[in-house]
């Protein structure tokens, strides 16, 4: 089995880190070279590339695969696997951090620090997460990672999914049809759904109007799940208290966006899942699937 690591993975880790990690686990691995595709059994990549159609198996290093031409892979007999399942801890901690910052006002004090300013927030501004309600929309790896950490912080956690089967750590599960009921009483709403035809623009003016005025929106899914102009309007009008945003449409967020300048908005540059062991988390998935291939078993995270 020869795995090629495409340069595009450098968005999240140094390609050589994964090559070494795989070699240490007895998998032949090298940097991808488009003139050698006939030698590869597998290419590991962040972005798709036309040359991948010559390789039998493509592994995407992200959970979202909206960018990959999976229908064409299916037509041309290329296997595609993704990296869902590895981001529950990172994203869970990122969302917990954003909520803690809003409640304990850390983002405001950090801004003050930059100006060398010793200034207190008004008495009514700080609150505790304990007892506050979080609504998590999408209860897969990300959603459950967020829910678990929120429950550990003493929050009341509700969720939205396409079935109402119970989920550990989630006090109540609403069906997607009841999204508006689920978000109505929440102090925080976290988005953790993939970007699909059904979720594109899922949050727009109607949803923001239906949320509490002291509510915070947390988007760690994809920018396109939110109508960004409507979010800006909701924040400007006071229909929402604030937002923690890791993903945007478009990315990078243009310098001209009003979101940059809003005190009650935390902007992170699509790094919510970053960790210094990302290459190892992806590597473990690849090793697992290489072993499954050798045992002629079904691959994990197989999309096509
Ligand atoms: P996952 O497949 O484990 O979970 C997604 C869940 O969303 C599934 O349970 C699915 O049933 C549910 N879902 C799909 N459509 C829905 C809808 N209309 N309403 C409610 N639930 C719906 O995937 P994951 O690993 O949790 O990742 C989810 C998405 O988050 C990815 O597709 C990706 O776009 C995004 N993501 C972002 C980052 C980041 O860096 N910010 C990192 C990882 C994933």
Explain what this protein looks like in three dimensions.
There is one protein chain. The protein has 304 residues and is an alpha/beta fold. It is built from nine helices and twelve strands. It has helices at 15-24, 70-76, 88-104, 106-114, 141-152, 179-184, 205-210, 228-237, 278-294; strands spanning 2-5, 28-31, 42-45, 57-60, 79-81, 133-137, 156-161, 172-175, 188-191, 216-219, 242-245, 265-267. The radius of gyration is 21 Å and the shape is globular. The two termini are 20 Å apart. Nicotinamide-adenine-dinucleotide binds at residues 63-64, 84, 87, 91, 137-143, 160-162, 176, 192-196, 198-199, 220-222, 246-247, 270, 272-273. Residues 97-272 form the D-isomer specific 2-hydroxyacid dehydrogenase NAD-binding domain. GO terms for molecular function: oxidoreductase activity. Its EC number is 1.1.1.-. InterPro entries: D-isomer_DH_CS, D-isomer_DH_NAD-bd, Dhydh_Halo, NAD(P)-bd_dom_sf.
Quick take:
This protein has 304 residues and is of the alpha/beta class.
Task: Offer a few descriptive terms.
single chain, 304 residues, alpha/beta, seven-stranded parallel β-sheet, 9 helices, 31% helix, binds nicotinamide-adenine-dinucleotide
């Amino acid at each position: 089995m020869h795995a090629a690591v495409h340069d595009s993975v450098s968005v999240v880790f140094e390609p050589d880190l994964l090559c070494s990690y795989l070699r240490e686990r007895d998998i032949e691995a090298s940097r991808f070279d488009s003139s050698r595709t006939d030698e590869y059994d597998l290419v590991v990549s962040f972005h798709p590339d036309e040359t991948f159609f010559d390789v039998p198996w493509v592994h995407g290093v992200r959970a979202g695969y909206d960018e990959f031409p999976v229908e064409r892979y299916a037509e041309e007999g290329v296997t595609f696997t993704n990296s869902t399942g590895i981001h529950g801890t990172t994203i869970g901690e990122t969302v917990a951090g954003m909520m803690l910052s809003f409640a304990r006002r850390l983002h405001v004090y950090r801004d003050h620090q930059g100006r060398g300013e010793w200034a207190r927030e008004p008495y009514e501004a700080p609150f505790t997460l304990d007892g506050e309600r979080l609504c998590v929309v999408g209860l897969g790896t990300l959603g459950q990672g967020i829910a678990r950490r929120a429950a550990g912080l003493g929050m009341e956690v509700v969720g939205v999914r396409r079935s109402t089967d119970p989920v550990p750590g989630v006090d109540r599960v609403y069906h997607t049809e009841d999204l508006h009921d689920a978000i109505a009483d929440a102090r925080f709403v976290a988005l953790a759904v993939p970007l699909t035809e059904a979720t594109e623009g899922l949050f727009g003016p109607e949803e923001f109007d239906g949320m509490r005025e002291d509510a915070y929106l947390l988007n760690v899914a994809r920018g396109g799940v939110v109508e960004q102009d409507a979010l800006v309007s909701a924040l400007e009008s006071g229909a929402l208290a604030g937002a923690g945003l890791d993903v945007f449409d478009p990315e990078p967020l243009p310098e001209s966006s009003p979101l940059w300048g809003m005190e009650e908005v935390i902007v992170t540059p699509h790094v919510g899942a970053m960790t210094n062991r990302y290459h190892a988390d992806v590597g473990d998935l690849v090793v697992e699937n290489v072993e499954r291939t050798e045992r002629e078993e079904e691959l994990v995270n197989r999309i096509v």
